[in-house]
Specification:
By secondary structure, the protein is an alpha/beta fold. The chain is built from 14 helices and twelve strands. The longest helix is centred in the C-terminal third of the chain and has 20 residues. This is Cystathionine beta-lyase.
Length: 396
């Protein structure tokens, strides 16, 4: 197998980059996958080398050939200047935020963000003198009215974690950059395959790699990719904070990455079929999915995104909690869980009303977030059909 340069890899298609990025079989005796390095201590050949840090590796926390392989593959995929690996998605969020914020700074955070991100702002950043203002996800270029002299970062999530509002990333990024603020985006839903964060003005792109990168519900993992401007501060903070990921989790993330393209396309196809079916059900008021025509965010999604994933929400007709339980508790293929992005389908009842501050959440009925896995769509629809019949009966 011919050796391929990093520059050449960048010219290939996305699926090719997913398969070949970060691996070089000739470096490890022809084995297809990079070896998993377990270790903390790295020995230097001489005292001079040890003191001057001349070897490529100095300590396990600072990286090894396993982490290098995954970082290179991810960097090749999204075209970033650099990538850091974190032990969870929330760790990636906190690492990205702390790499560009200091005491006395002001952060603009989207009101529809992942709830643990909000808790990090309210419980941790506030203790360090960093002020957070939550903003309407639909604000677009109007975010300029919220910019202060000390605004150092604007954080986006497109679409929203449960409510699926679509943000105008380029418009917000243009305003933020004009005022010298960094732009951060949680890109877990679309991944770099379906949304090119850096082309659209993002400085720090965050993924909960636990979701689609790992893809098999068997490892916790997070990643932050940086633009050239944001990379030095991100790299420095990541090292100073002692962030690192265990080699076995890196291996699982790398294994998942190789098949992410085919999995994500299947998640997309199946989710759209299920979403369209649900949109015609009398028990369902609305389907919250920006890839559906008629969704409020569809125009922006169609303009900026190349695809959609397996996650969306539905708003049911008004009903008591007992009816929600009747719908969900006896589903055969949908587990009840807080994660998503794995091969299995999941369902999660939710209510955003208690943790919105810049906007109100009153959808007119109970909400359920669905992750459509890799099961046969006919089986999933049959399962939901039976669940909605139970819901209807429990409503009375």
């Amino acid at each position: 197998m011919k050796k391929i340069s990093k520059d050449e890899i960048a010219t290939f298609g996305e699926n090719t980059r997913l398969v070949i990025g970060g691996r070089e079989p000739s470096d490890y005796h022809g084995f297809v996958n990079p070896p998993v390095y377990h270790g903390s201590t790295v020995l230097a050949p001489t005292t001079k080398d040890l003191i001057n840090h001349t070897p490529r590796y100095s300590y396990g926390r600072r990286g090894n050939p396993t982490s290098d392989a995954l970082e290179e593959a991810l960097k090749t995929l999204d075209g970033s200047a650099g990538v850091v690996l974190c032990p969870s998605g929330l760790s990636a969020v906190s690492t990205a935020l702390l790499s560009c914020l200091s005491a006395g700074d002001h952060l603009l955070m989207v009101d529809s963000t992942y709830q643990p991100t909000r808790q990090f702002c309210d419980r941790v950043l506030s203790r360090f003198g960093i002020d957070t203002t939550y903003y309407d996800p639909l604000i677009g270029a109007g975010i300029e009215t919220l910019i202060r002299p000390n605004t150092k970062a604007v954080y986006l999530e497109a679409p929203g974690s449960q409510s699926f509002e679509m943000q105008d990333v380029p418009a917000i990024a243009e305003v933020a950059h004009r005022h010298g603020a960094a732009v951060l985006l949680d890109n877990t839903w679309a991944t770099p395959l379906f949304f090119d964060a850096f082309v659209h003005g993002v400085d720090l792109s965050i993924q909960a790699g636990t979701k689609y990168i790992v893809g098999h519900s068997d490892a916790m993992f997070g990643v932050v990719s940086a633009s050239r401007k944001a990379w030095p501060a991100l790299k420095s903070f990541h090292g100073d904070a002692g962030q690192c990921v265990a080699p076995d989790d890196i291996y699982l993330a790398m294994r998942g990455l190789r098949t992410m393209g085919v999995r994500l396309r299947q998640h997309q196809e199946s989710a759209l079929r299920v979403a369209k079916w649900l949109s015609k059900r009398p028990e369902v008021q609305r389907v919250l999915h920006p890839a559906l025509e008629g969704d409020p965010g569809h125009t922006i999604w169609k303009r900026d995104f190349k695809g959609s994933s397996g996650l969306f929400s539905i708003v049911l007709q008004p009903a008591p909690m007992e009816a929600i339980g009747a719908f969900l508790d006896d589903l055969k293929f949908f587990g009840l869980g807080y994660s998503w992005g794995g091969y299995e389908s999941l369902a999660l009842p939710f209510d955003c009303s208690s943790y919105r501050s810049a906007t109100s959440w009153d959808p007119g009925g109970p909400c359920v977030r669905l992750h459509i896995g890799l099961e046969d769509v006919a089986d999933l629809i049959g399962d939901l059909d039976a669940g909605l019949a139970r819901f209807r009966a429990a409503r009375g």
